[in-house]
Amino acid sequence: MSRTIEVCLTPALLHLYDIEKSIVVVIDILRATSSITYGIDNGAEAIIPVAQVEDCLAYADKGYLLAAERNGEVVAGYDFGNSPFSYTAAKVAGKTIVLTTTNGTKAMHLAHARAHQVVVGSFLNLTALTTWLKAQDKDVLLLCAGWKDKFNLEDTLFAGAVVNKLRQDFVHFDDACVVAEDMYLMAKDDLRTYLHKSSHSHRLAQLNIEDDVQFCLKLDICQAIPVLIGEKLVKLDH
Amino acid sequence: MSRTIEVCLTPALLHLYDIEKSIVVVIDILRATSSITYGIDNGAEAIIPVAQVEDCLAYADKGYLLAAERNGEVVAGYDFGNSPFSYTAAKVAGKTIVLTTTNGTKAMHLAHARAHQVVVGSFLNLTALTTWLKAQDKDVLLLCAGWKDKFNLEDTLFAGAVVNKLRQDFVHFDDACVVAEDMYLMAKDDLRTYLHKSSHSHRLAQLNIEDDVQFCLKLDICQAIPVLIGEKLVKLDH
Fold first, then answer.
1. What is chain B's percent helix, strand, coil content, to nearest 5?
2. Which residues form the signal peptide (chains A, B) (predicted)?
């Protein structure tokens, strides 16, 4: 098969891509898909991504853990926020978590409506993910969740890392792959410093999540690949 | 004034930007905005961008020159195609030209509907354009025409060249500025070679327009800045 890999830089461009037979990798590095990867790897039974804090309420009486933040603080009455440090085995093993994430949820729902399969990527599971993608006989779309439908640096950097690992196994690629890979090659020796160039590095600093950012850039500490089945992200058998 | 510069990577994202008080620079390097810049610089009275070859027909009895191509060939009955070499002073001085360009026209019309002012940029007028932009007290949006609403390499490279010239004069910028500028800095010593990495370099080769591509990457051979007034691109007084 003459396989294609492409990068969709924001969910607002997803309608331009034929994904009916493709695997879509949703990327929301700070912090949704990193926390999801870590949580599933640590034995969470399932993670349900929702767009708004209010959407969590529908799950309030099901015994699920509820995760929601506003302005970097855990919302009163919720179990924890969006930091990957909340997703340790001690906290999530065997549990189902409802996670509030605006950009990531939008990307997952849009992709799920049309794609052959939707999985979740992050630096934490880069090698596990790319090894699995290589072995599938499918086209791949790397979908950056972005920020309010706009392009962002960290999601595109990760897309570039995936392209860099897969390029030899795919025949066709698009211009966004070229740029994402070149960005990644430029930045890979010090991803954190490169992200300081971002227009929202100031916003991140205000959220006081520097430890989270550092953690979300760790390579290959997880083997799990979360896959979206219905409304739930669960561990892919691979 | 605390000025903002942003890069909109494709017209499909333009709705995300507030441009009511901004100058929008439309970028369609291969070849629309390069040919337009060269034609206006060579004394064309006006250039009217239209989206379809058929749209030219509405202007057939006005004594305008009609420019249209299909698959790299001048359409039968038309005066010339989209090559910048058709826009020499001998051919266009004092004339009005109707130019068919799908991606460029779409970008210009979308921007024109909302922006404070719409101008045209290309490597041919980079310094004239950026010198003028510096002197305006306005925010700037660099609008890449892209390819069928998708991201492309050459338009983003040029956006990066503009960012590189203007960065010191603007306070706010977005992540697309960061990436466009870094791409440009990586590629600037040999833009042509970098563009060979493009997914459509094969398509360009088939069109047999290598001379056009080389020409469209020439720096600063024009002083003119085309500005959109109504449906016509004319020479900006600067």
1. 45, 20, 35
2. none
**For chain B, domain boundaries:** 4-234
A64: closest CA of chain B, how far (Å): 36
What dihedral do alpha carbons B74, B79, B81, B83 form, nearest 10°? 140
pLDDT, tens only, A176-218: 999 999 999 999 999 999 999 887 777 777 777 899 999 999 9
Q: How confident is the model at residue A72 (pLDDT cuts 50, 70, 90)?
A: confident
Going by C-alpha positions, the residue among B233, B159, B153 that lies closest to residue B200 is: B153
What dotted CATH number matches A4-230?
3.90.1560.10
Q: Interface pTM (ipTM) of the complex?
A: 0.95
Instruction: Please indicate whether, in this complex, the C-beta atoms of B16 and A149 are within 8 angstroms of each other.
Output: yes
For chain A, report the end-to-end CA distance as a whole number of angstroms.
Answer: 21
- Which pLDDT does position A68 carry in this prediction? 87
Judge contact between A53 and A68, C-beta under 8 A. yes
Tokens of residue B81, six digits: 């195609």
Rg (alpha carbons) of chain B, rounded to whole number? 17
Q: Which of B16, B174, B197 sits opposite A178 (nearest CB)?
A: B197
Query: Which are the contacts of B127, defined by CB distance < 8 A and separation ≥ 6?
Result: B165, B219, B220
Q: Do the beta carbons of residue A8 and residue A19 sit within 8 Å? A: no
Query: According to the CATH classification, is domain B4-234 in 3.90.1560.10?
Result: yes
How close, in Å, is residue A165 to chain B by CA atoms? 17
Average pLDDT over residues A30-37: 96
